[in-house]
Each structure stands twice: as structure tokens, then as C-alpha cells.
Amino acid sequence: MAITPPEQRIWWNEPIHQVELGWIVIAFLWGLFMFFFMIAWHFIGEQNLSTETYRINPTAYEEKVEAFADKYQVGEEDGVPVVRAPAGEDVYLLARLWEWWPIIELKKGQSYRIHLSSADWQHGFSLQPTNINVQVHPGYEHVINLTPTEAGDYGIICNEYCGIGHHTMTGRIHVTE
Ligand SMILES: [Cu+2]
Questions:
Q1: For residue 96, how far is its CA from the centre of ligand 1 (angstroms)?
Q2: Which of 8, 31, 100, 158 could cross-link with 169 by S-S, CB 3.0 to 4.6 Å?
């Protein structure tokens, strides 16, 4: 079948079918409801974390993360440093093509200030299996106050498509007793 123009060239002046109009109205109202309910989810679902955010140069952030890793490194897994920061300390995590660096070790019940930023493109910080998601942008340093409540191994995945190696962009947080 050939692709032919619509019978009425001025198709946008055709009357809308009742059913179609009904669905447009429903979708529009639902969109509005979801938009305003985002504020409620901050309180009800403990989602949409509050972060402090600062402007930073991506290279300066990368240097901060490296200094942090050098200072507190306690081991290595698959060539990636395992870093154990003292309780209450600032913890730095870097997103870059295509890894979350370094591997972090935290203690259950202790509070930390987790810093997140990217060295290159936009990435998504998704902590598995919990429901913590933060958009990570180069040039912005986000700080989250975090107190792990359960020991175990947590995975970080990138949930913002960032190129050919996106699916390999993972990281780890170990929470010890
Ligand atoms: Cu990514």
C-alpha cells in the first residue's frame, strides 16, 4: 500500500471523536495529578530524596574522589579500590563512563554524607535492592544523608542511558554489621 496523504488535507480541523476526546482528558488530568503528587511522594513513600546540591567542576570532583579513595582504601575488588570511610565522614562516589567508582564500605546504623557527581555525562544512581534513585549530572555535587539500616551487599546501577557501555555501569556498596 502506498503512503498517501489524508483525504482531508486540513486534518486538524476535523471534529474529534468523543471517545478520543475522553481519553485525552483522562490522560491530561492524570498527568496533572501525578505532577502535583510528586510532592506527596517525598513524604509518603520516602522517595524523591532531599539533596543538598553544589556547583562543582567535574575535574575538581574527580580529584576529591581520588583523594578520598587514597586516604581510606582498605582493599581491592576486580581492580577497583574498596574504601572504608570512618562513621559520620563524607563519602565520595564518582559516576563516569562506565563505572561507579570506588567501592564503598559503610557500617550499619552509622550516618554518612554521600556525595555524588559525574565526571562526564548524565547518569542515574539507582541503589539496589532499595528504592533510592538520584539523577547525577556533571558539574553538580549532590549530598545525601544516609544511614544504612541493614547489613549486606548493595548494587548500584546506572539507570540513565549513557552510551554503549551503559549496561555494564555498575558499582557496589558493602554495609557491615
Ligand atoms: Cu551511566
A1: 7
A2: 158
Report the amino acid identity of residue 125.
Answer: F
Summarised one tens digit per residue, pLDDT across range 45-97 is 666 677 789 999 999 999 999 999 999 999 998 889 999 988 888 999 999 99
Q: Is the peptide bond before 129 cis (omega within 30 degrees of 0)?
A: yes
Contact 156, 100 (CB under 8 A): yes
39 CA → ligand 1 middle, Å: 26
Neighbours of 132 (CB within 10 A): 16
Residues contacting 90, CB < 8 A, separation 6+:
68, 112, 113, 115, 143
pTM metric for this prediction: 0.76
Q: Which parts of 13-90 fold into alpha helices (H)?
A: 18-44, 58-72
What is d(CA 128, CA 125) in angstroms, rounded to the nearest whole number? Answer: 10
Ligand 1 centroid to 8 CA: how many Å? 46
Question: Distance between CA 87 and CA 68 in Å, rounded?
Answer: 14
Beta strand pairing call for 123-128 and 132-136: antiparallel
